[in-house]
């Protein structure tokens, strides 16, 4: 049996909100359920048993050990729909899409939902490790005397909770600190970062104003648009912000040209051509192929977020394409500097030859085709939710155009890059 075509049939997300604000009391499960149910309502899937649902979250409580399945059980899908969690840092949503698309292509399932949810407002707080061990020992005690003896060993210094850490375990540096080093190495300027940021806000605002997101976003807890969106953003306003990452000449990254901590969830509906026809759904885009790469940012000299160019080079080669063979480029804006470093690397002959093993550089892209409906700098970045947001956005852009091809590129913690190709559905 040859692989079947896989189509993106629709998408849905809740508006993204800044951490500690509108979704302060919403859990990952709450938000993922809302994103799934919005998709179910839009495409009349109430009571439908899908092939599976794959989603995940990066910041999770221990109670979220079966997050996606619980979200499905809380939705209006049939409880007989299987579900499982995926976790690949910021690549989670796209990786979930890849996994489900592959199963559809192989004929194992006919339909699926892929997505992700994340909240830093509801981040778990860990107890002191010594306190944790003491409490476990008390729990395992067989007599009251043993339990009291264990609890008496608790010290006041152990009672303070450990704050969540925003750093790479292998280096101790935050993602922003890593990116500041890379931005300096590639000579990315503050002005270029601010210009890219303004474009993201302007494009997202314009997309909202023309109704582009009317069938991609459902209101949640009174929020109707992404809370981070600043339609009046300007290079002049961004220039007044102080750098928050990097030191000296490397201090070019601000809160404005970096994505803020964000809460939200997203989902996309995938299916075979036959399943789409049976349910009278119009395919938006064909999910063509995908690739994942990793770089050695610990012992090597590569930047933490520089894996996507490696994945792109492999993906293009396998599909007989060039970097210029695309009508849309959806490059995740973890930081404005990240996008600019990726573009610079793919244009650089030395990088492409020495790192990617290419005789010629991948080359430049037409910047007018980059993130044309806005991206993470404007919308925000709930880690696991970004992939499905981008896939849904690109699929609708391709459907509107009626032809063409799009490239998705997402960097992720741990030195990971996840990329994919979509084409307009025929």
TrEMBL record:
It comes from the Bacteria. Residues 282-423 form the Thiolase C-terminal domain. Keywords: Acyltransferase, Transferase. Residues 6-273 form the Thiolase N-terminal domain. PANTHER family: ACETYL-COA ACYLTRANSFERASE FADA2 (3-KETOACYL-COA THIOLASE) (BETA-KETOTHIOLASE)-RELATED. It holds the Pfam family Thiolase_N. One of its GO terms (cellular component) is cytosol. This is Acetyl-CoA C-acetyltransferase. InterPro entries: 3-ketoacyl-CoA_Thiolase, Thiolase, Thiolase-like, Thiolase_C, Thiolase_N. The active site is at 90 (acyl-thioester intermediate), 381 (proton acceptor), 411 (proton acceptor). One of its GO terms (molecular function) is acetyl-CoA C-acetyltransferase activity. It comes from Allobranchiibius huperziae. Belongs to the thiolase-like superfamily. Thiolase family. Its EC number is 2.3.1.9. It is an enzyme of class 2 (transferase).
